[in-house]
Design a protein that fits this description.
Layout lengths: L5 H12 L5 H24 L6 H11 L7
Helix pairs in contact: 1-2
Length: 70
């Protein structure tokens, strides 16, 4: 389950975008972002993705279509 909360969304808006999110908007936005966060976590687990760049490169190679050997 997603850990995205209204407080987190408001903080990210403030820090990343220098925008003060109206208090009534934070929770609905968190609710909209939660399914994407959950889906990303599922995909990351299936890809055995880690924070290391080599793991990212390995995951991309595994997803790439096979090269023509002709």
């Amino acid at each position: 389950m997603s850990d995205i909360t209204g407080g987190f969304v408001a903080m990210m808006a403030r820090v990343w975008h220098r925008f003060a999110l109206p208090a009534d908007d934070a929770e609905p936005l968190a609710g909209m972002l939660a399914p994407m966060d959950d889906a990303g976590e599922l995909v990351a687990e299936a890809l055995r993705f880690d924070m290391e760049p080599s793991d990212f490169d390995r995951a991309l190679e595994e997803l790439a279509p096979p090269a023509d050997e002709t």
